[in-house]
Amino acid sequence: MDTIDHHIWTITHGELIARLMLSAVLGGLIGIEREWSNHAAGFRTHILVCLGSTTIMLLSVYGFSEFVDEPNVRVDPARLAAQVISGIGFLGAGAIMRNGNVIKGLTTAASVWVVAAIGLCVGAGFFTGALISTLLVLVSLFLLNKLEKRHIKDRRNRELELEMVDQAGTLGQIASLLGDHDVRIVHIKIVPGSSADHPPSVVVQLTVQVKRQQKFMEAIGRISACPNILSLTSGSLPAASSAG
Description:
The protein is an alpha+beta fold. It folds into two domains: about 5-150, no CATH class; about 155-235, Alpha-Beta Plaits. It is built from eight helices and six strands, in the order H-H-H-H-E-E-H-H-E-H-E-E-H-E. A hairpin with a 2-residue loop joins strand 1 and strand 2 (about 100-105). The longest helix has 26 residues, at about 125-150. Residues about 235-244 have low confidence and may be disordered.
């Protein structure tokens, strides 16, 4: 009968503390970026997720060492780790919000998920993988985020709300003005205006894609000058549906 090497199933208190501390540091580094960006899952959340997954991994590997000699017990260190990966989804789902056709929080949900994976790596002693993964996540969240904003800052979605006189041809004129300034209509919604209006009015809610900010502002100015436009408000939306 093969002898069992008990050394691989044990861990010193010092190494246990070191792994938990490293887990808190790595999770906190990623959480700092989310906290600075005012996202739902921030500094403390990422630390707790990373610590929790590390603790579960440590439990899975070393918590049942006294049972390895039992003939009817099969020790599987990956079993609890698999449950962490599938179970962390509820936190990610809580960070995702939908506003019409725009979805926010996907990046935060992904960061929570990858922090759990980093915690499992630390708990299992796979330090190289944990450190490289943390470095790549920070590069993605900090550097790539800045590059993304720099290159697509003029290609954002905007939300326009127009109250206009309910007259044939007015909406077509607005669409033509936007098209002349390279502004593409992504979504449109029309609701009735106040029933007390004379003449009757409608409220048009537009989601538009802007290529150049200067042209967009020129289009806003020309639309505001139209005689059938009663009011106009504008707001920005995330440049991509996976933002946040």
